[in-house]
Sequence to fold (538 residues):
Amino acid sequence: MSDYGNSAWQWFVYGSYVFVACVVVVFAIYALKVRNSSLKSLLQEGFLENKEDQ
Amino acid sequence: MNEFVVHSQLRWWVRSFLLVFKSSFRSFWIRKSFWFGIFVFSVCLLILFPFALGTEFIQKLPVQLGCFWAIMEFVAVVSLGQCFYFEYEAMMLDVFLTSPMPKSTLFIAKIAFLTVQIFSLSLFVFLFWSILFHVQAIHSVTNLVCFLLLTFLFSVSSASLGVVVHGLTSRSLAKEILHPILFFPFQTGVLLGVSSLSLSCLGFAPLSAVWGQATWWTLLFVYPTIFITLAFLLAPIFFEE
Amino acid sequence: MFLSKSLFQTLPKVVAKPVRFWDTFLLLSALMQLFAWYFALFLIGADTDQGDVYRILFVHVSVAWCAFFWFFASAFFGLRVFFQRDQQKAKAHDFSSHTSMEMALVFSSLVLMTGSFWGRPTWGVWWDWDPRLTSSLVLFLMGCGYLLLRYFTPQASYRIKISAIVSIISSINVPIVYYSVNLWRSVHQPQTFVQRTHNASGDIQLVLLINLMATFLLSIALYKVRRQSISLQETLQEFRGYQ
Fold:
């Protein structure tokens, strides 16, 4: 029991949370980048010009 | 009148099925070396496994059964790799696809033929396996019948799954990558089932099972049913222009 | 990373509004997740048996439930593809199915990794051929197969249908994964919230539920953003094809 209470295992647990956070952040950044670049291209190429404002 | 239409459609379907089934056999008969090639390959594996595992280790029944099913997996994969090869080579596939025969007959007949091919190979593999591995656990007719039933279910499950995977990847670019990555995950259930049940068949309870045989037998009967039904329903989608 | 002010102002409102809404939702759900993790790491005490290592379970169980949900969502949208006669709507359902499967793949890979992180100190191994782990790996491989099949099938109308078929077949494995601890003798612990197992104390269950909700909301936000990106990418490609 005391084996799991030492600081090494604590850092191991924090590291696993950081790892999960990194994966989620990388996926979010990728999705946002693709979306924004597609939006920019659509705007520049005139696809969104005739869309009516609501 | 409706009964007559249904009856004639059924007859047409059966005739188309028999045509494809017979043509597969004819193609196979012309190229018998394909069947013998797989047989020789499996015998080589039967010889190599004791070298790799050690002769003491292969005396244990779970190891013997594991080797048998691993070799059967190789046999199924190599057989399925040449699924429509003969028809494609003889340009009969175009004839079948452009003819008015129901497209589902092509898949169902292929499943039937591949089942026969894999099962026929399994009989010879079983014979050589029981001799080379000194398998002593099969000592009654009941054991033998149970074991052969398992190999038949394995054959029909692998054939039905393999043909559906072929259909899914027929218009894809990298079939060599897609075939294993789609085939093996779906095949794991069958493999686990047959290896677990073969131990039970021979009177040994596998450690990993709580419910034992009932769940696995159900899985082994449900698997080919699902994939044969899928092949039947999805054939028009796979072969649409 | 988020939409810049200048770009946002030039976009028509019909496009800008949902984009801004889901960006905000993503930020809020990320903050909620951080709070939930704070509870899990610092506010709740250590376990009597596992010490601090058990805290990994707050992440592991949450991402597992999300993975199951997105596999089912992908199959649901795949079914809608088949029952939809309108080609444009079928395409929309296909985008949703594709996005759901990507989410399922991300979360199932996190399940496998966090499970390894937890398994190393408690079971002594990074990996075991346990029924739950094996069936989870099979589920992950099915998701990979789905994405590879999509990538290597150029014909759009055919790709939509076969992707739907694979997503429906893959979802059959989800109940097998969930019930594998009951069906076979497993080293993996039984389900946490089932009445007769009573695997966790009240405070742990509460923090676990908070983490579950936070991760689920975050996954929905990620789904919507990714769905937008896929939809816009496809629209752009189609638009360029007609020029």
Summary: Chain B is about 80% helix and 0% strand. Residues 2-238 of chain B form one domain. Chains B and A do not touch (no CB pair under 8 Å).
